[in-house]
Amino acid sequence: MSPHPSRIHPLALAAAVAALVAGCGTTTLHRAALPQLAAAQPATLLACANLAGSLALADTRITSSELVAAGPITVQNVATQAPAHCLIKGRMKERTSPVDGASYAIGFEIRMPVAWNGRFLHQANGGLDGSVVPALGAVSGAAPVAPALVQGFAVLSSDAGHGAPTPFFGLDPQARLDYGYQAVGTLTPMAKDLIRGAYGKAPDRSYIAGCSNGGRHAMVAASRYAEHYDGVLAGNPGFSLPKAATAQLWKAQQYAKISTTTDAAGQPDLTSAVTPAEFKLIASKVVGKCDILDGVADGQVNDVAACQATFNLQTDVPTCSGARDGSCISSAQKSVLASIFAGPKNSKGEPLYTGTWFDPGIAGSNFAFWHFGAPATRDAGAAAFLFTTPPTPLTAFKATTGMQYALNFNMETDYAKMFATTAPYTESAWSYMTPPNPTDLSTLKNRGAKMMVFHGVADGVFSPADTAQWMDRLNAHHQGQADAFARLFLVPGMNHCSGGPATDQFDMLAPLVAWVEQGKAPDSVAANARGAGAKVVNNELPASWSANRSRPLCMYPKVARYNGTGDVESASSFSCK
Q: Which among 8, 201, 347, 540 is least buried, having the fewest CB atoms inside 10 angstroms?
């Protein structure tokens, strides 16, 4: 019996849609030719230091401009050899809030290489934004080998309209809207104008890319700002972010039921609900049941759809009531885990957010962080100030703890505040955070623009099943032909944007450019494990894997299957079927 007997798996739905379209006989739909966009043409930097004085940019103040020599730039402890470039920093729409009295602006930086490839990349950053991180364009996979600046892009980064990575900006109505979507709309024309002044021409091709909330920014841009972007790259996208955040609070409530210890404040220590050894046990049982489904026992589960129908938490994991030594879990733990993986429901049994998948990556430390650490820290504040209307008063929030807020969150009454409006909060959180019409991307398609999405199968916060179901609905809306302009690539074993037992080092920006500008549609993307010798080593790789394991990431709903012969550590021994 499947752990989700009442749910049609999105991979199965995709197959059904494809069969329906194929079975139309003489009425079979024919692909209409989409416009082919021309390739970007390179140019050389003409101006840098004098840009601030020569441009009249509306509501924009350039705070610094300098020519940076070629050399290493370190971000997140990774040194990247960057080319010589012009670095511009500035602020847009500076103001003082009439609601909370705080100062706001859209802070940004843009790095423009001396030797430019004619392309612009809007680097959409993650989390709560709130800081202008270096605009290098490291936008896909773990420790990317070729960030966009290195590839010759002009790259923009911003704080999305507030100056600290804390949720309290949600008290200001305009800061909410900037975070949701308006900062992208404000920054885009400014950046293109700045590029025009620097090179004597506007960018030939424009891209937006990011992971997590950055993936959400990209998804929103594909819907709201399709006329401004030729290519969209969305990683582990939180396009249903308000629902995902409230689901995090619900998870805390479930884990609290089986927590066996408390913290210094006397509140449940969620990490005691399911230990790392117990998650490792479950992951090993998933491997035991599902590893061979893709044709080879290699410690990696590629066929996620077949796995959900094959693995059964109740019968495949030993049950016990004695000492917790990692060899079994209790019936109570199974009940809570089954509920969490199925997804939250209200008192009527209606789903409030999409459930997720059993995959070996659930043993990853990042998966555990999102389940146990994030609800009381990141998600409580985000729900209190950003995703409910009106926001919680600051004094009331600070009078309690994040854990208590999570445990008290009501999935009936508080959840409904996601869709509420008041004066002066005239746009609901659901409205300003999500793509307005995520399944109709006709503007993007008809322009000849392209979209690539990737998602780790073991993401602990944003459901990969939610993204797969979105792809199914997008495909259905576009008469089974969405792959002409949008493709999804699932990453087996990968947690939130990186990590877990996965081949999580890949570059999707270059394939996206080739698709947009040369018409080379990607059926798969090459991915590598980060074993010994990698720029950033992944310590969660199984010891049985080669340090250089490679795999194809297949276009959904295809799966990487072993060819029957060849080195199981090599991508060349697998085909997408």
A: 347
Cα(384)–Cα(391) distance, integer angstroms: 6
Token duo for residue 182: 């308006």
pLDDT at 19 over 50: no
pLDDT of 403 above 80:
yes
Tokens 């960018």 map to which residue?
A: 203
DSSP string, 16-56: HHHHHHHTTGGG---PPPPPPPPPP--EE---STTHHHH--
* Range with lowest mean pLDDT among 77-81, 300-304, 349-353, 369-373: 77-81
Nearest alpha carbon to residue 65 among 54, 74, 73 = 54
Q: β-strand 43-44 against 115-116: which pairing, if any?
A: antiparallel
Q: How many angstroms separate the CA atoms of 92 and 149, rounded? A: 23
**Alpha carbons 507 and 489: distance in angstroms, whole number:** 12
**Reduced to 3 states, what is the DSSP secondary structure of residue 568?**
coil
Burial class (CB in 10 A: 0-12, 13-18, 19+), 504: buried
φ/ψ of 231, rounded to 5, equals: -140, 140
Beta bridge partners of 154: 120
pTM of the model: 0.94
Q: Are 17 and 475 in contact (CB under 8 A)?
A: yes
What single-letter DSSP state applies at residue 547? Answer: T
**How far is Cα 475 from Cα 482, in angstroms, rounded to an integer?**
5
CB 164 within 8 A of CB 104: no
Q: What is the pLDDT of residue 30?
A: 55
The full 3-state SS of 452-493, as one line of letters, equals: EEEEECCCCCCCHHHHHHHHHHHHHHCCCCHHHCEEEEEECC
pLDDT above 90 for 5: no
- The answer to whether residue 220 scores a pLDDT higher than 60 is yes
Question: 320-338 pLDDT, tens per residue?
Answer: 977 899 999 999 999 999 9
Q: So what's the pLDDT on residue 356?
A: 97
In the chain, what's the furthest Cα-to-Cα distance? 74
**CA-to-CA distance for 326 and 275, rounded, in angstroms?**
8
Task: Produce one character per residue of 240-265: b if its CB has 16 or more CB atoms within 10 Å, e if not.
Answer: bbbbbbbbbbbbbbbbbebbeeeeee
pLDDT of residue 27: 35
Residue scoring higher pLDDT (293 or 3): 293
Catalytically annotated residues = 212, 459, 496
Tell me the pairing of strands 450-456 and 486-491.
parallel
